[in-house]
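Researcher: Let's do a round of design. I'm pasting the structure tokens now; please hold your answer until I've finished.
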């Protein structure tokens, strides 16, 4: 038991607000923490504005935010950010480790003022992102002051012109600018910085001549990484690449621009190359990259069969000589470049290259039939093809394939055989060529099936399936057989379009029925579903009374929906009887917790009935 004398003694209050560990129940235990611990809590808020607002909690917290080392401003007004930076500068030790500023520019001078205020804090890291500006701010100059302690500077100036300081140096900086072509010459920025530009990233509107000049400037800076993206809309423009002697990574996406290798010179250090455009003489370019290991190529534009075959042969030789990890894309904009035989030859040539990723886009003017070769090393195949039907599979196994996507305009007759040759397939997106949907796979986890023709039978056995999207077309006259075994499925999307009039009763026709998970609700819980019915009113023709909806309810994959979404297209205003008839069905009445009725915009105004 504690003696009276001991109870009378009181320890002195802890210095600097530190807690003694013996506080009465009514005390503020958080405010009793040491300053360093409170600053750690404030830093986890991720925003200077949120940290400053904690001053309303108690006097103990007031002003502590000015001692933060990592400052982040997100979507704050420029004057508020400048005032906050002034408060940091007035602190006892105005040194920040990092400053991150992202804000919408309203006046042309705001970015320069904020950069000057940030330079007074001598941060080691600086990130400045100028968001979408009003039209009158386009092209305004942003003056970059010297940051003597900064080791990393990232600036996304949008369409502003970034201007280097007239004097001074950045003795430890690694500068990453994203500016407009009207900015100050990059060589001037390089003289102000004892660093290499890595990465050198540009995404701007320019023509082919300026594109070439800009790349030559970047090459003189000896950039280690180059990223260039611009959507050139005409394949009549042409330019060639300069040599980047120190570059280890180059990513170019130039739309339809005709891009060719440099007249002379090599890329001695280049290890990763990604190039997309109307590529000319690819074999010469690859022959000048002795250390290339990762290659991504996308051929765009009006592609001629002979030139494309030559480019694929060069890819095959380079892949064999260098052991490349290869991604290949073909994006043809013409429907008359090659016929069915030429298409077959291209697929065989692509298969010989042993690509890891294949993306093929081409729209044929009329329907063709082709054979699908085996891509043994491919991990991902995407075919956006129109009027193509793969009627036969060539020998071999897709042993590494994890993702297969076949567009709606393309179909595979013998899908079952294909799936049996894909032991590692995880994602399958396919359009069916026949009236039956049959998918048996022990590995598929994400399944998207679209039936182009009228469907009569659905048979899906996928023990590992977690997501299912199924869209079929079927008439009301013939029974649709549905059998799905997917014990681990979490998210289901089901849609059935009726190819013939499905008379619910009277003059109401059921056009489409769908079941969605978590999309029609305010929750993202995949276990909650919404039943959506598209119903139209047809005043002409004979009336009917077949109980179609009751039969369709028995075919639903999931019956634990909680939202009923009715999309009504009616020529009049009387639909109360229809709604009551639907709600009177036992399965719908027992499951529905939320009712949503949408009158389609194409219909005239309606009067809601009193129910």
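Researcher: That's everything. Go ahead.
Model: Designed sequence:
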């Amino acid at each position: 038991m504690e003696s009276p004398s001991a109870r009378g003694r009181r320890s002195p209050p802890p210095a600097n607000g530190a807690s003694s560990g013996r506080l009465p129940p009514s005390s503020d235990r958080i405010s009793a923490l040491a300053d360093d611990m409170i600053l750690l809590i404030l830093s986890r808020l991720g925003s200077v504005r949120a940290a400053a607002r904690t001053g309303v909690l108690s006097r103990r917290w007031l002003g502590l935010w000015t001692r933060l080392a990592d400052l982040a401003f997100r979507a704050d007004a420029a004057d508020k950010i400048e005032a906050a930076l002034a408060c940091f500068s007035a602190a006892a030790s105005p040194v920040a480790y990092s400053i991150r500023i992202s804000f919408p520019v309203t006046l042309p001078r705001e970015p320069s003022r904020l950069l000057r205020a940030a330079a007074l804090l001598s941060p080691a890291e600086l990130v400045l992102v100028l968001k979408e500006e009003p039209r009158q701010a386009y092209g305004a100059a942003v003056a970059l002051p010297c940051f003597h302690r900064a080791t990393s500077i990232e600036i996304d100036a949008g369409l502003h012109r970034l201007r280097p300081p007239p004097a001074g140096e950045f003795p430890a900086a690694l500068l990453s600018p994203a500016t407009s072509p009207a900015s100050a010459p990059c060589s001037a920025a390089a003289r102000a910085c004892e660093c290499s530009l890595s990465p050198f990233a540009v995404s701007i509107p320019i023509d082919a001549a300026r594109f070439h000049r800009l790349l030559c400037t970047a090459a003189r800076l000896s950039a280690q990484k180059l990223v260039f993206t611009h959507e050139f809309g005409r394949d009549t423009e042409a330019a060639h690449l300069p040599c980047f002697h120190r570059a280890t990574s180059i990513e170019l996406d130039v739309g339809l621009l005709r891009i060719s290798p440099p007249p002379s010179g090599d890329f001695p250090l280049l290890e990763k190359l990604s190039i997309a455009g109307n590529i000319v003489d690819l074999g010469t370019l690859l022959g000048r990259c002795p250390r290339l290991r990762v290659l991504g190529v996308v051929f765009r534009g009006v592609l001629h069969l002979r030139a494309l075959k030559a480019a694929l042969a060069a890819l095959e030789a380079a892949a064999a000589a260098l052991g490349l990890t290869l991604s290949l894309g073909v994006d043809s904009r013409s429907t008359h470049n090659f016929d069915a035989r030429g298409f077959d030859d291209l697929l065989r040539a692509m298969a010989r290259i042993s690509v890891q990723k294949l993306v093929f886009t081409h729209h044929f003017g009329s329907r063709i039939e082709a054979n699908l070769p085996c891509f043994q090393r491919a991990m991902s195949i995407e075919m956006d093809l129109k009027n193509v039907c793969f009627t036969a599979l060539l020998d071999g196994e897709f042993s590494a394939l994890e993702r297969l996507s076949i567009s709606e305009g393309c179909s595979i007759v013998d899908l079952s055989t294909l799936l049996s040759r894909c032991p590692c397939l995880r994602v399958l997106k396919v359009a069916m060529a026949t009236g039956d949907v049959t998918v048996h796979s022990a590995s598929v986890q994400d399944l998207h099936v679209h039936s182009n023709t009228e469907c009569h039978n659905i048979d899906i056995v996928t023990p590992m399936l977690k997501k299912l999207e199924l869209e079929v077309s079927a008439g009301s006259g013939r029974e649709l057989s549905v059998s799905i075994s997917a014990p681990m499925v979490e998210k289901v999307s089901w849609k059935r379009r009726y190819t013939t009039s499905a008379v619910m009763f009277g003059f109401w026709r059921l056009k489409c029925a769908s079941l969605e998970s978590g999309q029609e609700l305010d929750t993202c819980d995949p276990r909650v579903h919404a039943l959506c019915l598209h119903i139209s009113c047809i005043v002409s023709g004979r009336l009917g009374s077949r109980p179609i909806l009751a039969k369709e309810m028995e075919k639903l994959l999931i019956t634990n929906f909680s939202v009923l979404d009715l999309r009504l297209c009616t020529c009049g205003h009387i639909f109360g009887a229809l709604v009551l008839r639907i709600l009177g069905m036992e399965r719908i009445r027992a499951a529905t917790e939320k009712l949503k009725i949408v009158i389609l915009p194409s219909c005239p105004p309606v009067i809601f009935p009193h129910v």
